[in-house]
Fold each of these.
Amino acid sequence: MIELSEFLQAKRRIRPYARYTPLIHSDYLSELTGGDIWFKLENQQPTGSFKVRGALNKISQLSDAEKARGIVTASAGNHALGVAHAATSFGLEQVDIFVPETAPEAKLKKLRRFPVNLHLAGQTYEAAHQAADEFKARTGATEVAAYDDRDVITGQGTIGVEIMTNLPAADLVLVPVGGGGLISGVETAVRHIKPSCRIIGVQPEASPAAQLSFAQNRAIDPYDHAPTIADGLAGGFGALPFKLLQAKPPEIVLVSEAQIRQAILALLAEHQLVIEPSGATVIAPLLAGSVAVAGKTAVCILTGGNLALDLLREVVSR
């Protein structure tokens, strides 16, 4: 268990470098669902994604020896941006980041603005992760894991603390699920503050690793996923997130690629919010009516806004 005090310490630790993001009300989804629906706007972080929280909490606690060896990470894109921002914030000079060759150009463009060594490796996150592991073994660099790390999870969980502070009436929180760092951090933090609040994870049908992990009672990582536009949620579910959630697994809801596209368009049309597929997944169950929220207060964590322009054009044209 990660204690509430650890989340509060992480919140103070990252405060100078990350934003306390706002909660905004969704009149559109509230009317549609009969619930009281709110958005947590993590797309307003300096890197356009919540991932900066975990990276800051991890890197801020590295020893001088760990920093001296340089740091390495693998990412589908947003964690890489978080690591680059955190490393720059704390003055680290040797930073090697591995991302798939298929990473969205919007994220690559942002990454190239940072003084880091960017490596394009393979077609999937898993291929990039293997390349990062080989680099770590060869150089002795310190790894900053994307989701399977206690300090990273604690940093992500500060979102849960902020939600409970600003909206203590929340009955449920909808969380996009990939490797599990966010949902395990948010559920653990919220459980300390309001145990009755339900956490619902949302995954693409193309990559149901969390749902399968809880069904089979083992962490499935890596996971050979099908193609999905929600690249940040594709792949396996981490061992540490699984361990944190194993005793009381959250409900996991799956959404289709078409539903994710509809969610992106709805956020743009109804709220003028540009949200990437991984973040938009959380409103897909509300649009489809597959999660009952009538009479309840629900928060959707919109995890990122790094949406590629070509995908945005495709969604709008359809």
Note: The mean pLDDT is 96.
Amino acid sequence: MSKMIEEENIGSSLEDFLQEEGRLAEARQIAAKRVLAWQLQQAMESQHLNKVEMAKRMQTSRSQLDRLLDPDNDKVRLDTLNRAAAIVGKHVKIELVDNTQQ
């Protein structure tokens, strides 16, 4: 690698790169869904809730719960997420944040 390329990348971040590539919003969406799926799974485990019981309490199918817990499935309805959160004693918090805030 040339010295010019190395100096050009000093101080850059993954967010800067994703922004330049036009993929920052997509990356944030994927990350948010993965975190939510993980948090829900952890809450279920701490309460000793298996998927069958969780789906039953949500009044939904096991396959719907599997979609909710799938970190790669970003097509989840907010009402489904809220229902799942309430069952494990949590609530969903969503907020709009200025793009200038990190």
Note: DSSP finds six helices and no strands in the chain.
Amino acid sequence: MNASAPGKIILFGEHAVVYDKLGISCAVNLRTQVKVKESDKGFITCDKFPEIEYNQEILKEIEEKYNPIIQNKEFSKLIQAPPHHSGLYLLSKIFKETGYKDLHIDITSNVLKNMGSSSALFSALTAALTTKSKDEIATLANQGDILAHGGTPSGIDAATCTHGGFLTFKKSKGITKLNLKSHLPLIIIDTETPSQTSTTVNRVKTLRDKNKIKIDLILEEINQISTEAIDTIKEENYAHVGQLMNENQELLRQLQVSSEKIDTIINTLSKNPNIFGAKLTGGGGGGCIIALTKNQEEVIQNLKNKGIKSYKVNIDTEGVKRND
């Protein structure tokens, strides 16, 4: 029972989506691989947490602990949940339908931390243990994300990692899969500082509370950029896509969700003629930067010479897949 799922990036619209604006995400070809085999040891083991053994009773306790918290939306109580509890919570949901099994779970991942790493894991794990459709896998994988992200996520991460390709999200309309074939030659730059999503989301809220008119204008500009980007990506007009990325980044900087390190790296990228455009992706404050390039290998080597870690990625159109 083997399955894998890609990571994801937010191309346009982060933070604005909190206020019912359009966001665009896409899956990228960095993957998490899950290998599951039945065990005769009488419990569940996972190579990622070798010091811990899980059994049916533990899974039941975890489900009983978190179900009322989630149902009552007492999300502040989820902040201190141990990281591995989100995976166990998902297993409890899966086993409720399939019946409990003792397993050994082997996890290998190339997905960076703020690129949907938990969603890719949960999608692959669900696919490995069930015969569900992609829509059903995304719904179930999102149960793990609820606990991993300390509340009710939008579902865009799980949907993107499961379906692959491009998706849009708007709170009032939900998730829509886009039939775009562009391969978007992207690189991912790791700032090697943690993303601060909860902090930056609260920062935008504070700014908006102080000056609603100004911040709403910025959010609407981001929304217009996201809307324009759909056709621009479809046309594979990379120069224009890059321009929109630069404009989106400037607006994110005005929302104070960038950082000195992100700004410094993007300033470096702006001087490279092989770069169409660049912006932070995700919560900001750290995490990753995405750049659209003319020559991925040359840009990566140039950044390596400057001591900056980067990775070549292309759009993953497969999404989750079973490898049996």
Note: Residues 212-234 form the longest helix (23 residues).
